[in-house]
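Researcher: Go.
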Amino acid sequence: MKENDIKRISRLTAIVTQLQTKRLITASELAVKFNVSIRTIYRDVKALEQAGIPIFVNEGKGYSLMDGYRLPPVTFTEGEANALITAEQILLKSTDSSLSKEYAAAVSKVKSVMQYPAKEKAELLSNRIAISPAIAGNNASSSLALIQNALTSFRVLKITYHAEHSNEETLRSVEPFALYYSQQENWLLIAYCRLRQNFRMFRLDKILKLLVLDEHFKPHQLNLADYLAQKEKNFTTPDIPLS
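Model: Structure:
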């Protein structure tokens, strides 16, 4: 098989993977990602359709896959599995217990699809990695997984928050926008606070209670990079407005 054929097969598989991870994706986006012409993407999509991949063309919007269609389970190389296992040990020291629990479950699924020789090596590596007890791992919060789900589904959160600077507890309805990890304060939630009518940063370990509401909100147009740049420029602290 020629090198160009190998590259095209790899690209075709990657295109299907991209379609699985996004509801809609344009030919222009695919062309940029794979560094090919839009005409090449058109040919690739046609080849996938001829191979029986159920791709829908949304005129003026992009491509999407038929609901429920999935490729066979992904296989992992030994190096990829080792990287995930190493990261798992570090995350066990995470300050959010829900994150470490979810990641451990994901790694178990990775191991389950590995071939026996690689699986045996993965188990060996798991038993040969340790993190120094001098590194703190107090699992101060347990809400990160819930917040992640609310963030991606645009659902309002109701939280009871203990503001450190004022030493008061307040009940807030917030619209989750982003998550930020700070070495000093660990996980922070960036959200639009309806009480303060502005964006705030909330420390997860200061969220005393959390409830995901059925209420949805309209996605914010704010850019995370711009928000963080403005935050740094103004030297503001968590839960203090930018203005």
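Model: The helical segments are 3-21, 27-34, 38-50, 78-91, 97-112, 116-126, 144-153, 224-234.
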